[in-house]
Amino acid sequence: MTDADPVRLYRTVRLIRRFEERAVELVHGGQIVGGIHPYLGQEGIAAGVCAALGADDVLAGTHRGHGHVLARGADPARMLAELCGRVTGLNAGRGGSMHAADLSIGVLGANAIVGASGAIITGAVWAHRRRGRDTVGVSFFGDGAVNEGMLLEAFNLAALWRVPVLFVCENNGYATTMPVAGAVAGSIAGRAAAFDIPAVQVDGQDPETVRVAASAAVDRMRAGGGPELIEARTYRFDAHHTFEHAVRLDYRPPDEVSRARARDPVRIQGERLTDTDRAAVDAEVEAILDAAVRFALNSPEPDPADALTYLYASGLTARTGGG
Amino acid sequence: MPRLSYRRALTRALADELARDEAVFLLGEDVQVGASLVTTGLAKRFGTDRIRDTPLSEQAFTSFATGAALAGLRPVIEFQIPSLLFLVFEQIVNHAHKFPLMTGGQCSVPVTYLVPGSGSRTGWAGQHSDHPYSLFAHVGVVTVVPATPADAYGLLVTAIRHDDPVVVFAPAGAMDLREDVDDLTPVPLGRGRIHRFGDDVTVVAIGHLVHDALAVAEELADQVSVEVFDPRTLYPFDIDGLTESVARTGRLVVLDDGNRSCGMAAEIIASVVERVRLLAPPRRVTRPDGAVLPFAPALDRAVQPGRDQLATAIHLTMKDGS
Ligand SMILES: Cc1ncc(C[n+]2csc(CCOP(=O)(O)OP(=O)(O)O)c2C)c(N)n1
């Protein structure tokens, strides 16, 4: 199942990188309102994990969710349109950056409540398995989430009921400005050990390392194993959220940032390609994003009269607020 | 037809839906033995895969149900005590309820949250006696409070078949009621029921309080002609049915087992007076503002809306409007 092609892995990290850079530009240009949580620097994790998945698998991400959705194969143009609040967006302009979802490819969505994805994915995978599919699931979350009770409850349920969920902790060292050492008693892998969930720590800056670890876990899970956990050590190159570009919070030593930036997943994976291959991918990604930006900005905005369309799947309509 | 208890009506609805649709499954704490007496016998009949005992981890199993629903199943969760809804408000409101809109209509989350024994169970004190239906109506989650065994059956069946999340409050005060029922059928959402017709005043009563309202109406029958309106679902609310009733009687009193401020009674009164010119100011009988049910039985009763208060409110409304 695993897609071990280094070119495709590079293509994914490069696509996420350029998507994020273009999205940040659109935030500064005012075309994306509300800002985004950039995934810059963490691309190797989504790319490596998703390369290990099959067509039937499901995942749920976080507020920093663009990479997960793109790595799973969502259309970058519709995703960017979603960030711009257009009707052509993945979520018809109702979700935006923090809720981008594509159920048709098993992406149950970015989720803006820290720690929320674990239990949702556990239920979804359990349901698919009950219907005889060999689905596995991935729950992405940050280091901040390992202190949320619901996530630990989800570890327990998944382990107890042997639901094959890969819990992927993207340990970028900070929860907003809170350093991991100031927040996590014990260790992240130790959280998993408490539930007899096998855990490994990997270098999240190397997409290939992540892919290998994720593939091994997915293979074991598909063969009947219960959940596993990967703690991917990473670093976000940019702000917690683009609001930081304006407020300039002071919490990360500059030399720490520049040391981390030197270990760039896009460069690390790119060096495994020939110059020709890399240039071809770069050009392809550039063209995709140029088209995506055009598509997003030329797409219509939703009609305000339809603001609460989709509120109820049952077709129930809500009373209006005015008059 | 034998007399059916409210509790058994719930069991029957669960059994019928489990039998009808493979996608339905039940999860909760001690549901296999049926600690609440509502799920009795279901595990034997449907197996422990479909009647699942969960660890004490309400937040996880509530979101687990959301995930299972996103993957095409129709979970029913039984909560042991109503106050647990405070614990899982996040999972219901931020996730189950918001998913369809936030995804732009890509999914539905058909989960039923069944809360048997909601409201005061005398002697269970502060953390077991809440009746938090107004919170769910406020956020727009379908909210159901059946008053009779037949409605308990019919509304629970409808809830399970409904494509959005539904909270079903089965009040403690109604669990032991029995009635003769000829046939059990689904009851539509958003349709109220007039239990007793009258000309002078419409009393809206919610859940088990319907029976108190009927008793008071009977008591006052030679003085006042009371109409008793049971909304059955609080969200969506049958405002058309109620408007029609109040347009005839011209007077409105609401009996609501929730706290006064921002409660259902306030919402019902506001919705009616937007549409109907009343003959007298409307009145409401509720728990006090910010009430926490005290333990001692006399104190517990003092905080719950009572028949005497309702009789007084009806008299005052008649006097004001004469
Ligand atoms: C339950 C919850 N608490 C707080 C927040 C506000 N918040 C959003 S992101 C964030 C930090 C999350 O840190 P981490 O889990 O490490 O992920 P990272 O942002 O580093 O990717 C916080 C506190 C939230 N969205 N949800």
UniProtKB/TrEMBL annotation, chain A:
Top-level class of the enzyme under EC nomenclature: oxidoreductase
Top-level division of the source organism's lineage: Bacteria
Stored Gene3D superfamilies: 3.40.50.970
Alphabetical keyword list: Oxidoreductase, Pyruvate, Thiamine pyrophosphate
Segments crossing the lipid bilayer: none
Domain Dehydrogenase E1 component: start-end pairs: 13-304
InterPro entries: DH_E1, PDH_E1_Alpha_Subunit, THDP-binding
SUPFAM superfamilies membership: Thiamin diphosphate-binding fold (THDP-binding)
EC number: 1.2.4.1
Cofactor needs: thiamine diphosphate
Pfam families with a match to the protein in the record: E1_dh
Entry's Gene Ontology molecular function annotations: pyruvate dehydrogenase (acetyl-transferring) activity
PANTHER family found in the cross-reference section: PYRUVATE DEHYDROGENASE E1 COMPONENT SUBUNIT ALPHA, PYRUVATE DEHYDROGENASE E1 COMPONENT, ALPHA SUBUNIT BACTERIAL AND ORGANELLAR
Protein name in the entry: Pyruvate dehydrogenase E1 component alpha subunit
Species, as recorded: Micromonospora vinacea
Lineage, highest ranks first: Bacteria, Bacillati, Actinomycetota, Actinomycetes, Micromonosporales
UniProtKB/TrEMBL annotation, chain B:
Pfam families to which the protein is assigned, alphabetical: Transket_pyr (PF02779), Transketolase_C (PF02780)
UniProtKB keywords: Oxidoreductase, Pyruvate, Thiamine pyrophosphate
Transketolase-like pyrimidine-binding domain mapped to chain residues: 4-177
Known EC number: 1.2.4.1
Highest taxon, organism lineage: Bacteria
Class in the EC hierarchy, top level: oxidoreductase
Oxidoreductase among keywords: yes
Cofactor: thiamine diphosphate
Protein name, per record: Pyruvate dehydrogenase E1 component beta subunit
Lineage: Bacteria, Bacillati, Actinomycetota, Actinomycetes, Micromonosporales
